[in-house]
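We modelled the chain as a single entity of 263 amino acids. Its sequence is:
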Amino acid sequence: MDISFAGKRALVTGAGKEKSKVVKCVQTQPVIQLHYRIGRATALALARCGAKVTAVTRTQADLNSLVQECASITPVCVDLADWGATEAALQDVGPIDLLVNNAAFASLQPFLEVTPNQFDQSFNVNVKAVLHVSQIVGRGMKARGAGGSIVSVSSQASQCALRDHAVYCVTKAALDMLTKVMALELGPHQIRVNSVNPTVVMTDMGRLGWSDPEKAKTMTSRIPLGRFAEVEDVVNSILFLLSDKSNMTNGVTLPVDGGFLAC
């Protein structure tokens, strides 16, 4: 099934990183920037399919390397957690037909150790920034009257409790409901809104975190296909939901999990 986005303009958030990154927060818990590799791969795939792509991330060096890889991509450097800066950065990007909300933040800690700062950081990126960027793009789509498609990258964690993921799980559950409400309100304007909900994805971070066979088995044993997802599995699902091939698909949270949530 060939998919073409010729003549379409796409915006992808969290599109910069070549590799997933781990940094340490004050409490020395790992902070995992989970979706960056998916975002970069999505931006490149959209460009290959003919779309004019605007890539958004907060690190200029990552954007520079992305443009070196694909010169047709337009870079925008902004921290999406900053509402005002995001408004200013996106006001001149022009008409957008396709939006991928991919930027995400996760600070993993036991439930009893969650701090207000960790809670706010996660919600600011995983929910508030998605709402804001979608408002900006959605208003333009509505004004033009030509419809559009929005896809957010959620997670199986929205529907399955994971130890030390209390805040992350809750942000993704909120994102799934935001997807449904957006689909309800924007649908009459022919703007479709869906999400993809991957299991563990074999980014560099995924391989690092799940390289131990015994640890991996605890998860893969619950996946009927018996394996984790690859980046292209997620990207292909995003492309499908963005495309005209899914014209009657709206308000869906699509598992990309090998059947994990079916069990």
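As a brief sanity check on the tokenised model: Residues 91 and 218 are 46 Å apart (CA to CA). Residues 20-34 have pLDDT under 50 and may be disordered.
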